[in-house]
Amino acid sequence: MTELIDTHVHLYDSDFELDIADVVAIAKSSGVSKVVLPAVDSSSYNKMTELSLSLQGFAYPSLGLHPTSVKDNWRDELEFVRSYTFMLKTRFEEKLKIEIDVQPDQDDYIVPMSMQLLIE
């Protein structure tokens, strides 16, 4: 059987709270062996991480900022990502290259970016 990996599913969203077990069971019975949980901003990390821990081997969290979720606080959100990626760079050293490029003249508006990084 072909292994299917859903690379973008927000199972940690409150819409799935009541039937998460059924949703996961249906996905698995349909051949989905893994899912990637994309974060949208720093507020999504706790729920996303908790769910990935409860579904180890099936659900994998990812680090990210989505342009529709990050508003006037984009600097704080970007700093959150920088802090997390600093820990990753420390852990993986030269095996990991991460580049965040915000031009000086882009300082007054929302960064139009969506970065997803699979964390295992």
Topology:
Layout (H helix, E strand, L loop, with lengths): L3 E3 L13 H10 L2 E7 L6 H10 L4 E7 L8 H19 L22 E4 L2
Parallel strand pairs: 1-2, 2-3
Antiparallel strand pairs: 3-4
How far is the first residue's CA from the last residue's CA? 24 Å
- Rounded to an integer in angstroms, the radius of gyration calculated over CA atoms is 16 Å
How much helical structure, as a percent, in the residues?
25-40%
**Count, helices:** 3
Describe the protein's architecture and organization.
- 32% of the residues lie in helices and 18% in strands.
- By secondary structure, it is α/β, with parallel strands linked by helices.
Which keywords apply here?
120 residues; alpha/beta; four-stranded mixed sheet; 18% strand; globular
